[in-house]
Design goal:
By secondary structure, the chain is of the alpha/beta class. It is built from 7 helices and 13 strands.
């Protein structure tokens, strides 16, 4: 039976985020936390594979103790096990330190519950927005990686091959590779299910496995938390909101409106951009 690990992150709800006007930082106090949107699509795909051909699904996250709530949500959706990696020593981690700790966690999961065949991550997180952690995990664990996956076409457990569609800027790429592998999920991958009543009851009673730095004797302290985070944020700012002059284009038919709009664009923009003079 396949063993699938899903990496998730608890992030501030982007619909509730506010910016401190004095220091231009996120105001996190009082902002509800949710499971990162793209990570849920990774979880959903793992659960679909579980439903169709059988699999064990383990969810992992690194974060503060309240992140247990997000793990319980994943259990309610159908995940089998959940692991919370939490310690003050992990605080302040950038993507480099985060990928190191999460990769170490996946390796420990493999030792605890059996070899890992597939790893799912969201393509990026809503707060960091870098898209670096998934590929970083794959590099540290020496996994094949398939990024920006919009469809899992086939999972061949017998021949240990996976075929996917990757959404690129200039089209769709169909790729086949060997397990073990890591996939970063797009929202186009699937539609996330709702939790069932039995799932919610199980989640309410479930206690995630909690690991701290003491559970990773081989972890290099210089590679975790702030010490292991070479990323420096030199400046943050709120984009300036500029007023835009608008003009209404009217006509008796769509064709007439299009013709009028084209004429206005030609007269106002095109000559200037091409350096033409009237």
């Amino acid at each position: 039976m396949l063993h699938i690990v899903v990496c998730i992150k608890q992030v501030p709800d982007s619909r509730e985020i506010r910016i401190d006007p004095k220091n231009n930082t996120l105001i996190r106090q009082g902002v509800p936390s949710i499971v990162n949107f793209y990570d849920l699509h990774g979880l959903e795909e793992a659960l679909r594979i579980k439903d169709e051909q059988g699999a064990k699904v383990t969810v992992v996250t690194m974060g503060p103790p309240p992140a247990e709530k997000s793990l319980k949500e994943c259990i309610s959706l159908g995940a089998d096990e959940a692991v919370l990696v939490t310690d003050r020593g992990f605080a302040g981690a950038d993507t480099l330190a985060t990928s190191y700790v999460v990769a170490s966690t996946i390796a420990k999961v493999a030792e605890t519950w059996g070899p890992v065949d597939m790893v799912f991550c969201g393509k990026q997180t809503l707060d960091g927005d870098t898209g670096q952690v998934g590929p970083g995990i794959a590099c540290r664990l020496d996994l094949e990686q398939l990024t920006y996956v919009s469809k899992v076409v086939k999972v061949d457990e017998v021949n240990r091959k996976v075929t996917v569609q990757r959404l690129l800027e200039d089209g769709i790429e169909v790729v086949e590779t060997q397990m073990p592998l890591l996939i970063t999920a797009l929202k186009e991958l699937n539609k996330v299910r709702r939790a069932s009543l039995p799932g919610m009851i199980r989640a309410a009673r479930y206690k995630p496995t909690v690991w701290t730095t003491a559970d990773f004797p081989g972890l290099e302290k210089a590679k975790i938390g702030l010490k292991g985070s070479p990323t420096i944020v030199s400046k943050t700012w709120v984009p300036e909101i500029k007023s835009v002059k608008s003009e209404r284009v009217e006509g008796d038919s769509p064709e007439a409106i299009a013709e009028a709009l084209g004429g206005k664009l030609w007269d106002a923009e095109l000559p200037k951009r091409l350096g033409w003079t009237s």
